[in-house]
Amino acid sequence: MPKMNSIYTPKQAVITKIIEETPTIKTLVLKPEEEFSFSTGQFIELTYPGKGEAPFTPSSDPNKKEEFEVTIMKVGRITALFHQAKVGQILGLRGPLGKGYPLDSFVGKELLIVGGGVGLAPLRSLIYALFSRIEDFKKIIICYGAKTPQDIVYKYQIEEFKKPENVELRLTVDKADQNWQGNVGVVTTLLDNLPLNSSQAVSVVCGPPIMMKFTTWKLLESGFLEENIYLSMEKNMSCGLGKCGHCRLGRFYVCKDGPVFKYSEIKDIEDIWD
Amino acid sequence: MQFISYYNFRRFLERLSKDFLVYTPQFINERDYDYSLFKEGFIFNPYRLISSPRQFFTASSSLVVGYFDSKIPRREIKPFAIVGLKSCDLYSLKIQDYVFLEGDFVDEEYKKKRETSLIISSDCTSFKDVCFCLNLEIKPYPQEGFDFNLSDIDRGFLVEIGSEKAKRIWEDNKDLFEERKDLQARREEKRKKIIEDLEKHLSSLGLVPQEKLYQLVKNNHANPLWQDTALSCVECGACIMNCPTCHCFLLSDEERKGEYFRGRIWDGCQYKNFARVAGGANPLKLRAQRLRNRYIKKFEFFKERIDLYACTGCGRCIDSCIAKIDLREIFKALNA
Ligand SMILES: Cc1cc2nc3c(=O)[nH]c(=O)nc-3n(C[C@H](O)[C@H](O)[C@H](O)COP(=O)(O)OP(=O)(O)OC[C@H]3O[C@@H](n4cnc5c(N)ncnc54)[C@H](O)[C@@H]3O)c2cc1C
Ligand code: SF4
Ligand code: FES
């Protein structure tokens, strides 16, 4: 029988561990059958065998080669299936797809990372990548917002994010509980009095569309340049290869030309936040 | 130039049938033709068929791959020969080729079909009311992109050989062809005539010149025309399913007897869920947005990416629209 390989064929990856992040978010640790590596910001298509595929961005350290992680929020049909999956189960993997964050162009700069909800997933991979060469960056400020303290992902790790001395971590929740001591309010409330030179700094934003919209506006207001705001655009995707037509955004395909875009590249396209 | 009589052309098709699945035009009603598997008779289609050639290269619903340890063998693709493509159809393959062959990811199935198939096109000897190829500067006779091209003359065809593959096939079947120097001038006359007739038809319609189409779409995203026109759309998707340059699809997975496979189904931007993402957000939730999207994709996106409009002027979308939405009229209104 001829080996059936095409650009649409998934490779196998076995689930080696499942981490419950929040009531609606799980991280799956996956071990691919074949060598697999990605640059931070690239995404994959993950197959639930016989049921379908969906795009996710690996949330783990891109320097780790044996295994990688995806952090999945349960929002619909396929994500619900991934949430039911068990350790040992085999999933399908296509990728890496798209373009990663342009890390080299961040060198020597002050970086602002803004995440909302499960949007911290690709940003965690970015944080790992930055931390592995931390002396290359002047300063990193990480701002993260979740709905409630319960909804914060990577709680077990979050202290690590502020270990390097040129890193500052700011957290907020929309709604506090009795144990929450920190900031309350949407993520944009963390963006006041940023100790950086906004006209030179780079910001990387990932989260729900509404959060990205208000964050972008706030950053522009604070003096960030349009070409220094990097956004992760979420679009309906099927192929991930620039063929199926689903993810068109203006003259781009998000899957092929993105998923990360500078605000300056896409600002004139209507309905970008819808 | 080579000539083949009607009689010999049928024999040629019979011989081709040994190596190819041969599809030829058949009447489906008094005005229209569609492809069917060649049996014996051959009918020449004066203009394009109902179906676009797209169906041969990315079947509307096809098995793409079995995966993991699927025992489902990869389908052997039997080479096919398609007879009856017109100039507009050949142009559409440029768009499909860009989508499926260019860039880092090549669709192997598509590639194999393009490489192994035989394309026998022909000059238009007439046109449909909806034809407006010339308006897009596509001539109604093929100039490139075929293996053989036929010009209907003198109870036979003047044959232009357009590829190495065709040349080899011709060499194996030389006995059916004859050299005719006298017919080339007749072909040019006929070609001139069809252009004149088509020009006359098109000028009576007062169409917008092709070089304006890009800007017209680009400058009119907010035009209320999209909304007004979309009101009559019944969302049947006929325009996208019949369009030769539409290429959108959806991968869909299935399990059968413990084996997994992935199929490809044609999809299109006129369907409501085309752009819907999890949580229900949908940048194309309104019919007006979806209608406009088709024009942006064909006249802006492709123009910007490969400097071609993804429109061939075949008029299939006009022919097939129940609501009588007419692309030519939309451009006239945008230009008004
Ligand atoms: C580049 C990129 C990276 C992403 N990274 C992450 C990440 O790291 N973590 C994360 O949690 N999320 C991520 N997402 C979002 C994630 O892909 C979606 O949440 C997921 O696709 C939702 O799938 P669902 O089936 O659960 O949702 P549903 O709401 O059921 O479906 C979502 C979409 O799939 C279509 N669809 C549903 N069922 C079918 C079907 N049977 N056939 C065909 N289409 C169907 C729907 O039309 C809809 O457009 C990312 C998205 C993109 C584009
Ligand atoms: S659009 Fe032009 S090339 Fe196509 S069938 Fe009509 S006349 Fe022929
Ligand atoms: S997901 Fe298919 S073109 Fe982008």
Overview of the structural elements:
- The complex is a heterodimer of chains A (274) and B (336).
- Chain A is an alpha/beta fold.
- Chain A folds into 2 domains: 11-97, Translation factors (Elongation Factor Tu (Ef-tu), domain 3, Beta Barrel), CATH 2.40.30; 103-232, Rossmann fold, CATH 3.40.50.
- Chain A has helices spanning 77-84, 120-131, 209-221, 254-257, 263-266, and strands at 11-22, 25-32, 43-48, 52-56, 68-73, 90-97, 110-116, 139-146, 167-173, 183-184, 202-206, 229-232, 248-249, 252-253, 260-262.
- Chain A has a 7-stranded mixed β-sheet, sandwiched between helices. A 6-stranded antiparallel β-sheet of chain A has the order 4-3-6-1-2-5, covered by helices on one side. Chain A has a two-stranded antiparallel ribbon with strand order 13-14.
- The N and C termini of chain A lie far apart (46 Å).
- The model of chain A has no long low-confidence stretch (mean pLDDT 94).
- Chain B has helices spanning 6-19, 54-57, 87-101, 108-116, 164-172, 184-205, 213-218, 225-230, 238-242, 287-306, 316-320, 327-335, and strands at residues 2-5, 21-27, 33-37, 61-67, 80-85, 118-122, 148-153, 156-161, 177-179, 249-256, 259-266.
- Chain B has an 8-stranded mixed β-sheet, with helices on both faces.
- In chain B, strand 2 and strand 3 form a beta hairpin.
- Chain B starts with a strand and ends with a helix.
- The chains are: A alpha/beta (274), B alpha/beta (336).
- At the A-B interface, loops of A face strand 4, strand 10, strand 11 and helix 10 of B.
